[in-house]
Amino acid sequence: MDANSAPNITIRRLTRGDAYRLTAASGLFDGPITEAGARDFLAKPGHHLLLAEGPDGRAVGFVSGVEMTHPDKGTEMFLYELAVAEDWRRRGVASHLVGALAEIAREGGCYGMWTGTEHDNEAALAAYRSTGGRLEPGTTIVVYDLA
């Protein structure tokens, strides 16, 4: 999908051959992206990464998602991570990225999409609410460090 979906940005759905685009966008991630890591992620079935690119082709945001299937529930999309470059925030980039991932989920037959964030991350909560997301009352995220 290389369609203009918001003024001045293009949403690009990365494929196996786009590892170089992902490594070039490392500044948007928590840590550097290696070529091997990019290839591994992009090669896995059910793993999705969308880049928002500005008019100059520079990555200004991304969303990643992973399809998860359970035998008694079907398949759902886990919105793994969402980020937008500071100078591109509050322009609808995050909303367009989330919407594009939701469309991939619908096309793939997912019955729902979910994510987690900190309770005080107002920017993320606003983006999720603006795209139709709702907070699930009483939920808590539990994390295991397996390293």
Automatic annotation (TrEMBL):
Gene3D superfamilies: 3.40.630.30
Pfam families: Acetyltransf_1
Chain ranges of the N-acetyltransferase domain: 9-147
The entry's keywords: Acyltransferase, Transferase
CDD domains registered for this protein in UniProt: NAT_SF
GO molecular-function term, one example from the UniProt record: acyltransferase activity, transferring groups other than amino-acyl groups
UniProt keyword Acyltransferase, yes or no: yes
Name recorded for this polypeptide: N-acetyltransferase family protein
Provenance organism: Sinomonas puerhi
Lineage, uppermost ranks: Bacteria, Bacillati, Actinomycetota, Actinomycetes, Micrococcales
